[in-house]
Amino acid sequence: MKLKKAVVMTDDEYEVLLEELDGLRKSVVLDQDPIAVGLDEINRKLATIQTSRDRASSIVCDAIINKNLAQRLQNSKQYEFEKKASNLFMTSADVKALKSAELRKASIETTLSDDLAAAHDSDNVVSKADTFLKYASAVAKDLEIKNENLVQQTYVVQLILKVHPTV
Prior knowledge:
This protein has helices at about 10-25, 35-90, 95, 100-110, 115-165. Helix 2 packs antiparallel against helix 5 (about 115-165). The chain has one domain. The protein is an all-alpha fold. It starts with 10 loop residues before the first helix and ends with a helix. The relative contact order is 0.17.
């Protein structure tokens, strides 16, 4: 899945990728007894897991880009709010006339409630992007561990076949 330029993933895109990651995680099940399944089956599983690892790595890369875009969006929204708040503080006679800093802050936040809400919403977008990245990375790591296990199983089966060629 290719991300569009400067657009954070939608909930639908997350859902599709989460389902795909779940499928990748379940794509290969390790066997209790690798000797019983033989080298051909282990090699087939190695090929399957390599394809799954490649796809998971691609999703992790997309998730990194997505998180960076979300953070840029967050920074932009926060900057926009702070700029407008500063401008309002400097130019509004009504805000300047208020007696305390708390009242001025509350007045500015009320006036700029849409901008403040957008800044808070962008925090949620970053949190979602970060959580997705962590999950995608965990799936990629899980696949890497399965791959290492399969490679070790291959060596064990090859050694056993050399020692006991009739097995």
